[in-house]
Specification:
homodimer, mainly alpha, Arc Repressor Mutant, subunit A, Tetracycline Repressor, domain 2, 2 domains, 10 helices, 0% strand, elongated, DNA-binding
DNA sequence: GTCTATACCCCGATAGAC
DNA sequence: GTCTATCGGGGTATAGAC
């Protein structure tokens, strides 16, 4: 049986996941598949094309995680679930996650190839849809441009994950999940309407119903889930 | 005059800034300095050591930017100024900024060398000090752990800059500055106390004094500076 | 079509001459 | 302190075996 593109991509990904780009050479890759390096060029035009395929795979995997959120019943649940799934993806496949946010020049590209850009655009759109749903349902403030709200939340989520992965927080993964949720909650206390404050756990705090002014939340314990 | 470490680091940085890691080889570097590659090994033990020195330089440069904020008069001004200086640094030296947040394995490291970790820690501490000041002055909500507040803001700032640098926002630099400030403002509307809401521009909006409930801010124009 | 063998040039790094 | 010479290992183009 001849070698398939998917075999190459699979082993390339495995190599990358184990030892980073350093471990991923065409010779290494070929040896894993029991062939010599030039044989790979029958299936991929260059190492670059292998990398591109890997990035696409990262987006594809990411999509399988966050799309599970669509099975949730309400806009708010879909939104929260998407956040959880994204966190799961990032923690389970950190290098795939990282690849999605690496500068193009990391791969020697001056810009992203069209198919990668399309995946990125689709992911972006998914998040915007989640935000739009929540705005329409009255859970998030309506602004002149919905994308601005999504962008702020996206920035927070991605920034936090990056900082964690960089090792600057010195937290266990389990602890980081709590921290992530707590931080997301802080975001929502700013972004959410009173309706959201009422629905998201305010009822569990000291008998308050969350309809008072925001300063009442000042010393809340944030280590619980935001939903 | 013999070659100095600073000459090597300077040219290495220039090469990296122009063409990324691909353009930075010991041979290239040596050619730029008018010597041959092995000569560099009198000054640096390895290419790795050059990289480490470059990352340290990135932190040093970053520090010169954000430390200017200390000349501002009040905690709130120092905090905002630090944000502006950090944005300036990121936009003026995107690759230096990027280096500060690259995973260690980008450089072939399993972890950060101690001197780099120390710089990162100092930068972290600087931001925590800015947050602490603002909490003490009553501008930011006091939480059980101050670092949590700083972390949320840090994550937002870094995430937004990363997304912009990745080219996903398709904005001009000037427009991005507005977007950054607007997004930071959204964060503060969640993080700030009423005192902050009163001081930060609420007075300019339709004659409101900002002391009402937060839903009044729902459709505010956010494209102005957050301070 | 698919793979091997070979070859070229660039890389990081070392040894030893000057 | 810098050179030349050299090593092992990369990406990949080419030629040709099956």
């Amino acid at each position: 049986m001849a070698i398939q593109r998917s075999d190459i991509r699979g082993h390339a990904t495995e190599l990358y996941l184990c030892g980073g780009l350093r471990a991923l050479s065409m010779r290494n890759l070929a040896a894993r598949l029991g062939v010599t390096a030039p044989a790979l060029y029958r299936h991929y035009g260059s190492k670059d094309e292998v990398l591109r395929d890997m990035v696409r795979e990262a987006y594809r995997q990411s999509a399988t995680y966050i799309h599970r959120a669509l099975s949730a019943a309400t806009p708010l649940d879909r939104f929260r679930r998407a956040g959880e799934e994204n966190l799961d993806f990032a923690l389970t496949h950190p290098r795939w996650y990282e690849m999605m946010y690496l500068s193009p020049e990391r791969f020697g590209w001056s810009d992203y190839p069209p198919e990668v850009a399309a995946h990125a655009q689709a992911t972006h759109q998914f998040w915007m849809d989640r935000v739009r749903e929540c705005v329409d349902a009255g859970y998030l403030r309506a602004e002149s441009d919905i994308r601005d709200v999504g962008m702020t939340m996206w920035a927070h989520s991605h920034g936090l994950i990056t900082i964690y992965m960089r090792g600057l927080l010195e937290l266990s993964e389990a602890r980081f999940r709590d921290v992530y949720r707590a931080s997301a909650r802080r975001m929502l206390l700013g972004l959410g309407t009173r309706k959201l404050l009422r629905e998201v756990g305010a009822g569990e705090r000291d008998g308050e119903d969350g309809s008072g002014d925001v300063d009442h939340l000042q010393n809340t314990e944030y280590s619980e889930a935001y939903g």
